[in-house]
Amino acid sequence: MPSATGTMLIVQESRFRLLTDAGRGLLFILAHDAALEPQDLPAFTHRRLRVDYAEAPGLRAHIAQKLHLLEPAR
Hints:
Layout: E1 3-12, E2 15-20, E3 25-30, E4 48-54, E5 62-69
């Protein structure tokens, strides 16, 4: 499963944008079977994390399966 590491910039419902460590912006949609709910996503805003995702042919967004926080809470 591919993954991307970076900082979550913005959240809207079950969608979020990740700025990767390489400076690329990626759009994700939270998978329906993910361990998180859409209302959990704002807690990750401006935090560094790794997103394990599935490709979504025909969509501009990837499907986020798992989010792993890489920095402790401040």
